[in-house]
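Long-time lurker, first post. I've been practising inverse folding by hand and with some scripts of my own, and I keep getting stuck on stretches where the structure tokens seem ambiguous. Below is the full token string for one chain I'm working on. Before anyone asks, I'm not after the true native sequence, just a reasonable design that respects the backbone. If someone could post their per-position residues I'd love to compare against what I wrote down in my notebook.
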């Protein structure tokens, strides 16, 4: 019997910004891979490479969004940057605690909550992607 995914991709997750949508799919693929291996009975110690992938995705996804928001002159950019860096640091803490206490579900709970909060954040920042100027701006390929 197939094991369920932790977070199933939904079209509601689409932001109509190709690089962001691809990175979101990658983030979920990494989270679901970690979930899958834990369901298979793998310990967190064995899954450190998968955890590092999740962490790397969080970091470079935040960096990508930061670049887009800077190009859009987002007024709260400092708070955005501090927020995603704080999330990465918290994820690292949760992983260490989960390994110490042998409670891998802590990692999955954190990631699921982080994803939900990230989607909430997109309600605020996605409209700015349209206003983006500079190297991260959208190109209208129809004209």
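-- Answer (accepted) --
I ran through it position by position. Result:
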């Amino acid at each position: 019997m197939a094991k369920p995914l932790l977070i199933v991709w939904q079209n509601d997750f689409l932001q109509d910004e190709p690089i962001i949508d691809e990175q979101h799919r990658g983030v979920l693929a990494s989270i679901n891979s970690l979930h899958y291996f834990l369901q298979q009975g793998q310990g967190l110690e064995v899954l450190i490479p998968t955890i590092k992938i999740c962490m790397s995705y969080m970091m470079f996804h935040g960096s990508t969004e930061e670049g887009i928001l800077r190009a859009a002159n987002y007024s709260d950019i400092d708070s955005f940057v501090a927020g995603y860096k704080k999330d990465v640091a918290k994820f690292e803490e949760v992983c260490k605690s989960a390994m110490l206490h042998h409670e891998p579900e802590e990692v999955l709970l954190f990631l699921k909550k982080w994803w939900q909060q990230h989607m909430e954040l997109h309600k605020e920042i996605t409209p700015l992607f349209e206003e983006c100027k500079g190297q991260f701006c959208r190109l209208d390929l129809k004209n």
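A couple of notes from the structure itself: Helices lie at 18-39, 48-71, 77-101, 105-131. Residues 18-131 form a domain with the Four Helix Bundle (Hemerythrin (Met), subunit A) fold (CATH 1.20.120.50). Happy to go over any region you disagree with.
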